[in-house]
From TrEMBL:
Name by which UniProt lists this protein: 2'-hydroxybiphenyl-2-sulfinate desulfinase
Amino acid sequence: MTSTAAPERRSTTVPLDWKEVWFTNCPMVSANNIDQELGWCREEFKKIGVEYAYFRHAPENNWYPHYIHNLDNLIRFGGLYPPIHVNADIRRTVLLGATWVSEGGCMAVRARDPFFRMEDLKGKKIGISKSLNTVKNDWWRIQEHMGIETMLRLHDLTMDDIELVEFPYPDDWYDKPEMLVPPMNNPSELWMRRDHKHDLAFRPLETALLNGTVDAIYTQSKVFQHLQEATGRIKMIEDLSRYPDWTIQVANTPAVITCTEVMADEHPELVVAYMKAMVKVGRWANDNKRAAAYILNHQTFYRDAEDTYQGIKDVDMVPSLSAQNLECIKIGKDFMVSHGYIHNDFDVDEWARPEFLEKAAEEVLAEEWERRSWSKLPAGGGLDVEGTRLG
């Protein structure tokens, strides 16, 4: 009998050096995924004499710091569930900002099956994945679980009305030698090595759906959805992103920015430098959505650049800690607590530290005023925003 036990895994990192800052991101909508091509964040760190690089640029760093944040000098911009897990159960981190994308989730079925409503799935089999990798957070499963439960509830159904079929999988690509060498200068290099828009490792339940093992699976709205529909073999019978209720749109989103508490408390200038770049890049992206979409298409799972544009055209690319973003984060965290995906609860409002974003915004505004004032004042003019009311 073949064992399903996960192999022994461990995370490795470079020695700590506060003259270095590492970044990592997920292949989703964020200012960081745009900046990795623009290089504005690297410029901000050069101003203060600090090297800024993708964390996999150093061969000593394997993939796991992206999930367990065991590099003190790492800043992460990515999916919601792993950083919630880290702050709850692994180490204290700081929430710096968030980008909200309404992606909700869809219920996917085979195109020619006679399923047209969620009610048609009563008594049917719905798949759910289970990572055997115990080092990292099982974020795939969490969003599947949350999406399935929500869609059933919207149609007066419960988990008892369907047969949930679990699919354990190794989730071990992080340890494959070809994914560890050579070092990468940019996250886009990862996707150059994998045809990520058609790699079923990113859609582990699709094969089970197409071969008839299950009758339906969860998939993300817009991202993944359009790639799957384009095959002509899959259709969607429910889509949470079409509902006016924004509280059911949490699907490993919002994308959030986190750093370690030690970085925030002992080296706040590093955090501010990063957030300044995110504000600048976010503003640029808001003004140049099609250009931003072209860049994001290299890393995300939208069908193509036009599909990416349609997905981001209404997204505010400047990260924020708005009340709505924080409430969405709380919804995701509360689901993880109530369903046993994290052991410890925490206060999201205390996790959030808005002072870094506020300081970054002040510095961006001051720099912009100084740059513009040179054409209007004899010797230019700085802007003292502290204690000053503008307007």
